[in-house]
Amino acid sequence: MRIAVLGTGMVGRAIAGRAAELGHEVTVGTRDATAARDDWTEWAATHPTVTLAGYADATAGADLVVNATSGDGSLPALTAAGEENLADKVLLDIANPLDFGNGFPPTLSVLNDDSLGERIQRAFPRTRVVKALNTLTADLMVQPRQLADGDHSVFVSGDDPAAKKVVTELLTSFGHTDVIDLGDLSTARGTEMLLPLWLRLYGKLGTALFNLKVVR
Amino acid sequence: MRIAVLGTGMVGRAIAGRAAELGHEVTVGTRDATAARDDWTEWAATHPTVTLAGYADATAGADLVVNATSGDGSLPALTAAGEENLADKVLLDIANPLDFGNGFPPTLSVLNDDSLGERIQRAFPRTRVVKALNTLTADLMVQPRQLADGDHSVFVSGDDPAAKKVVTELLTSFGHTDVIDLGDLSTARGTEMLLPLWLRLYGKLGTALFNLKVVR
């Protein structure tokens, strides 16, 4: 697949690197591809097949788009990517609406009767938004077998069953063994609202290398 | 221990029944002990050592108080129990602030930068509030070994370490094997905000007999 990964941070690099390793044609999208930060240049040097482009150029040629930007950067980045470029495409949305305005722990800027995933879907109605992977650390998103041989759970939420299937297959190819389809995109409220617990567990355990398993 | 369980619903009965079985002296508190519903009478007949009393009478003689009322019933029930009766006591708070005003799934009436647990603590500053067991179904709260031989997690949140120890020991006596101390009472925001995900999993799995395990 041709995959556009929007965002050059930890999550973007993890997804881009792993997808390239699995043979996908990966372009990372960023605001200004001519002004890459030093740490990106370093990362890119070890991932020669991954190319960098502006948000719109990266998205235009993609089969699957991944939103790996920050919560408050998501709508601006997707707007820059362009509604036409995003039309009919599957958008794997990993962002969480974390608000660090009042320090740590952050609160959520959208929750309860709405979610960032739903906001993105409303802003881009022709895009097939699937919320997933926003409940675990970047390393485990793409290499889940490093923890308990993958014996833990991830979730997908979305209104388009075929789009969820595409994302589920990608997650399975990463090594996930328990991908739970929660239902329509409003179920993303549940996974986004998991973040406050995740952040406290992170503080308590002293490592981000943990995940939840739905025992049933 | 002398345990007062406030609330005659599913959660109250589960806690009261199990605590009595383990040899504790259990009184269930209710608004009007002379007006018990038929289904309570039936339950009580099979639990002859458990007594029923008004909120204040049940609380007055207790070492440990359990809030097993509904989210919107919690502050009224505890007010009826009486600030003096609750002073210095450990209060195990199991309630979730679910608001069914807009149908299913419910939203939360307090969240993000506050929690029901913290509201209760502010209303009763001399009481030692510990939030726990609000993340799983009543049957599993008290008989966790029936699922994966207890290989799943529960959480405690509270400002008083000794109070958390009392609750942790009670949970361990119920059969819990992984009781995670998240930290101070503000961490209850995380466990209360887990409810939206729990409710969607309940819908998806078609059973409440599931729980989360923190895999690390």
UniProtKB/TrEMBL annotation, chains A, B:
Q: Which InterPro entries match?
A: NAD(P)-bd_dom_sf (IPR036291), P5C_Rdtase_cat_N (IPR028939), STEAP_metalloreductase (IPR051267)
Q: What is this protein called?
A: NADPH-dependent F420 reductase
Q: Note whether Oxidoreductase occurs among the keywords.
A: yes
| Source organism, top-level taxon | Bacteria
Q: Which UniProt keywords apply?
A: Oxidoreductase
Pyrroline-5-carboxylate reductase catalytic N-terminal domain residues: 2-97
